[in-house]
Amino acid sequence: MATPSDSGGSAGAPVRTIRVDGARLTITGPPHATLLDELRAAGYTAPKASCRRGECGACTVLVDGRAIMACTTLAVLVSADVTTAAGLGAACDDLRAAFADHAAFQCGFCTPGQVVRAEAVLREDLHRSRDEITRAMAGNVCRCTGYRQIVDAVCAVAQSRGRAVEAGS
């Protein structure tokens, strides 16, 4: 993906610069433009434009480490670092592998949002119960898998990372 630089907004619109996946992104769109609109206009494809109402989670990104739905967040209000699924990089290779190992995706449309949400859940607490992980992931919809596989993958990574922390690595 080319490094995004300008989202090409309207004349007279507020201009601000944020960091997305480590790169600078200038927000120049109208005040009602969502973070999702700005990201997609700048060429970021990981956050998916699906429901545009905050109901599916396909557009989930991290803003200063906190999972949010980009379709319901006004871009001009974002002043923190934004991380998309693509920007997580090697930090969540174990999570991506677990999704593959547990058949936690089929069509793949929801996968970037699921991975971002799962990474946020894991960063918050590696010692959640299966029910707590299920509830924490509930904001992200998957029409293919039925969720068991997604929760299986997140639980497996939580256990693995928990063991690594306990072992001191």
TrEMBL record:
CDD domains: fer2. Keywords: 2Fe-2S, Iron, Iron-sulfur, Metal-binding, Oxidoreductase. It comes from the Bacteria. Residues 14-88 form the 2Fe-2S ferredoxin-type domain. PROSITE patterns: 2FE2S_FER_1, 2FE2S_FER_2. InterPro entries: 2Fe-2S-bd, 2Fe-2S-bd_dom_sf, 2Fe-2S_ferredoxin-like_sf, 2Fe-2S_ferredoxin-type, 2Fe2S_fd_BS, Beta-grasp_dom_sf, Diverse_Oxidoreductases. PANTHER family: OXIDOREDUCTASE WITH IRON-SULFUR SUBUNIT (PTHR44379), XANTHINE DEHYDROGENASE IRON-SULFUR-BINDING SUBUNIT XDHC-RELATED (PTHR44379:SF8). This is 2Fe-2S iron-sulfur cluster binding domain-containing protein.
